[in-house]
């Protein structure tokens, strides 16, 4: 069974729905998360990461899950110079009893103001 929760906009601020905010497939939740729109140019990577972590928790709660049930997070950074500040926010947020697998990479992101984007896979059964 697949459940889709549709987005209202994407990273470019376009309102046409082209993807879901979260999809649950056979009890596994999949999502990509960016900071709330509009993405402000003056936000630090740490502020964007904190906003993303709040959104991850909100979305997981909407499907009956929580951050303790995250299996994997991929963190995309627009520049590796943000690695340390995002890691500091991560260390404050992550469930120390249930830390997920984590990967982090530098990529070209879709919005020039976007510094951080995350991909999450979690148990939602």
From TrEMBL:
<dbReference type="InterPro" id="IPR035709">
    <property type="entry name" value="YoaB-like"/>
</dbReference>
<dbReference type="InterPro" id="IPR035959">
    <property type="entry name" value="RutC-like_sf"/>
</dbReference>
<dbReference type="Pfam" id="PF01042">
    <property type="entry name" value="Ribonuc_L-PSP"/>
</dbReference>
<protein>
    <submittedName>
        <fullName>Enamine deaminase RidA (YjgF/YER057c/UK114 family)</fullName>
    </submittedName>
</protein>
<dbReference type="InterPro" id="IPR006175">
    <property type="entry name" value="YjgF/YER057c/UK114"/>
</dbReference>
């Amino acid at each position: 069974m697949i459940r889709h929760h549709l987005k209202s906009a994407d990273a470019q601020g376009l309102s046409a729905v082209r993807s879901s905010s979260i999809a649950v497939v056979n009890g596994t939740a999949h999502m990509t998360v960016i900071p709330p729109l509009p993405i402000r140019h003056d936000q630090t990577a740490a502020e964007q990461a904190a906003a993303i972590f709040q959104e991850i928790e909100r979305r997981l709660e909407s499907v009956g899950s929580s951050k303790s049930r995250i299996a994997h997070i991929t963190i995309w950074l627009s520049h590796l110079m943000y690695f340390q500040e995002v890691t500091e926010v991560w260390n404050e947020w992550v469930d120390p009893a249930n830390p997920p697998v984590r990967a982090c990479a530098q990529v070209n992101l879709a919005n020039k103001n976007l510094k951080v984007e995350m991909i999450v896979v979690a148990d939602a059964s």
